[in-house]
Amino acid sequence: MKKDFVILLAPDSFKESMTAKEVCHAMERGIKKANNSISCIHVPMADGGEGTMQSLVDATNGQIYTVEVIGPLGNEVEASYGILGDGETGVIEMASASGIHLVPSEKRNPLITTTYGTGQLIKSCLNHGVKKLLMGIGGSATNDGGIGVVQALGGKFLDKEGKELGFGGGELDKLVTIDLSNFDNRLKDVIVEVACDVNNPLCGKQGASYVFGLQKGATPEIMKVLDNNLRHYGILIKEKLGIDVLYESGAGAAGGLGAGLMAFLNGRLNKGIDMVIKYSKLEEKLPYADMVWTGEGSIDFQTQFGKTPIGVARLAKEYNKPVVALAGRVGTNIETLYTMGIDSIFSITRDITTLEEALEKGQENMEKTAENIIRLMNLNQ
């Protein structure tokens, strides 16, 4: 290795063990133990799912804020949002306010769960004067088409008697009028980008209700009701707003929140990893690196489908950089990953151990594995 060798560290978080930033620090500690002359560039990554807000805030030296919002069942919960280092970009994970983890399994019912709290997070971002809003919409407990978001931002959904609809996808069949006269007008000047890695339409057998309803507590009968309600909702959006969301790819994401963000916030749906690469400025930093390290909690054949290590590797190969991936678990059928930009894959697990112990020792194991990789590289000097 040359004296000023540089490694760019661009891992995802290791769920329940380390944030992406903590992974970077553990990697660097191990690298420096074996060769103190190596420089490291930290770019904490994510793929648009859990950990995206934290990674983008860390990558840009931004700040995280915590507020009380209305949770999916209408009760108050604590949720967080981030403002990136530019001071002009807000980042939200809808699961923080409206996620399925906030609803005990015995209480899951997408007829009544709401995205209202996610709308409150958007409003909090607007209060910072943001010009862009980045949203990850995975892990929802809801099937309300995003009406809760719009309600929190001042929009009204009215029945035939002019009464406002209540929370949940079970209310959408009553919808007659959409009133946006008090909708937060700050949104017209805000670009909304949505991390969405599913292509499900709003309705039908591949739509929000049938594909994702079961995990949210829906029976087959409830799925049919929700699907019919979202169809009615989509038809009214086209009639009242002139926007056709019924068959748009990704409209069915997060129980139809994808459709709601398209229709009411002019949301643009993007692949999660592409959005994170853009706002972490990963590409700007690649030319300065001699090698790239990435990773996530588990690497297996599913990694090829838009996960962080492949997104990082593909971009790194455009700059002819070798790529090493580290994981807590290395699964089966990973051979295809070697054809997609990853040059070598290492498991950081060092002992036969329980999952709990592996998670607890994540940083220690990452540090020791990184050290050993560099010691092997030192032999080439």
TrEMBL record:
The keyword Transcription regulation does not apply. GO terms for molecular function: glycerate kinase activity. Keywords: Kinase, Transferase. Gene3D superfamilies: Glycerate kinase, domain 1, Glycerate kinase, domain 2. The keyword Transferase applies. InterPro entries: Glyc_kinase_flavodox-like_fold, Glycerate_kinase, Glycerate_kinase_RE-like, Glycerate_kinase_sf. Pfam families: Gly_kinase. GO terms for biological process: organic acid phosphorylation. Belongs to the glycerate kinase type-1 family. NCBIfam families: glycerate kinase. This is Glycerate kinase. It comes from Tissierella praeacuta DSM 18095. The lineage of its organism: Bacteria, Bacillati, Bacillota, Tissierellia, Tissierellales.
